Amino acid sequence: MMRAHPWRGIVAEYRDQLPLPPDVPAITLLEGNTPLCPALRAGGDNPLYLKVEGSNPTGSFKDRGMTVAVTAAVAQGARFLVCASTGNTSASAAAFAARAGMPALVVVPAGEGAVARGKLAQAVAAGARVVMVRGNFDQALAAVRDLVTRRPDAALVNSVNPLRLEGQKTGAFEVVEQLGDAPDWLCIPVGNAGNISAYWMGFCAYYTQGRALRRPRLLGVQAAGAAPLVEGRWIDQPKTIASAIRIGHPASADLAKSSVVESKGHFLAVSDEQILEAYRFLSVREGVFCEPASAASLAGFWEAQRTGWIAPGESCVCVLTGTGLKDPERALAVADSPVEADPTAEDLLRALPPALQG
Ligand SMILES: Cc1ncc(COP(=O)(O)O)c(C=O)c1O
Question: What domains appear along the chain, each with residue ranges and CATH number?
Answer without folding.
Answer: 10-60+164-334 (3.40.50.1100), 62-161 (3.40.50.1100)
